[in-house]
Task: structure prediction
Amino acid sequence: MSKFQKGFSLVELAVVLAIIGILSMGALLTLSGQRDAVKVTDSKNRLLQIKKSLLSFELVNRYLPCPDINGDGDEDRTNGACSRSYGAAPYQDLGLTQLDVQDAYGVEIRYAVNSGATTLSNMQDVDHSASYFCQTGCDYTSTFVPFRLTTPPIAGNLGAGNYTICNNAAATCVTGLASDQHMADGLSVILVAYNANGRQLTPSCTGLSNRETENCDLDLLYWDYYVNKDLQNYYDDQILGISGYEIKQELLKNDATIFNTASNSNSNTQNNLLIAPPPPPTNPTNTVAGDYTGSSDYNPPNGNFDDSLKIDGNLDAALDLNNGDNELTVTGDQNYALVSGSGNDNLYIAGDAKSSISTGSGNDYLTILGNLSSVASVDMGANDDFFYIVGDVDGSVDLGSGDDTFRVDGDLNHTVYGGAGTDIIYVNKTPADWTSSGQASYLNGFERIRFNDGTAQDI
Result:
């Protein structure tokens, strides 16, 4: 009897090989995607490390370094000014390695500084954001810094030569774009990791998608987007900025008196004897990367729990931190109601306050680096509170009961109620300037006023 062995036909074998090929391709694509994800995370961590090192450098040296343009790891200056407004982060000056200032693909991370920093006179002007980088002809020591609290960006003045990042919803990225198309603006430092296609960058930025072209050219605009592998809209850049608010905050959280000596120019200092502003919150436990839009971003626990939150953007939804000793930093504008409940709270708003703020009872700190708008209000509640505002007061303020301190560097355009207790206001004016301003009529329930020349009088 004949015995036959039945095997695969050529057609069947071809089908099996095709299936194996498809599965293998899928596995390879998955592996490639995982590797890309790891590299994206690695690049992000390097950006964060550079940012942290820059702020640490500023804390020690009282100014920020210029870019490294020749690859030796040191900042490059010409006659005191930055030799160029973009280059690499000076890894030697920052205590880093050359690998630390490259992205995960080995491409140099761009370090761009305020475009005015290439001109020494801009650096020496405390009303210019280039003063953050001033090293020559500036008052910087362990006591002085070459800029002040009112150095741009501040409310209503983003500062000449600073950068804007358009967000992923923007159809175009051009000067004058509506603010809701911005992820961030008024940035004095930009860091960019170009990642996978970074080695193909040319001086003319050819062969890139529109968004990556914007991040390659040398204007003041950058464009954030999601990772996209489509050839027409390819994007894998990562961008991180540093604002003037963060530069000032880094100093304030380590020395709350650092700006008590104000400088109208870098060659003519004058004492400003106003009380030190409240210390900003430090080391938040929770961070919202971008605008706060609701409880899906962060949901405060009920009861007497201590919240510690930083919002890297605007407050775009109502937020109630409930009771407890709460800390909150908002790096943008406060556009919706903010409540911190009873407890000793510390609230820090880097932009404008545009809605109601209620701190409840407790010894509370409130800092607003922008303006208090006409539709906004502040109620500090009971106990001894400290409210500091850099900009103008156009909305209502009630300090409540207790011995309260109120410092305003801008103008009063609305009634401020001191309430019960002994309340003191500090104004950034001389007695003569205060009298001529006519703003005394806006004070109600204050017992004493102090001026920036160190004098004081009872009210």
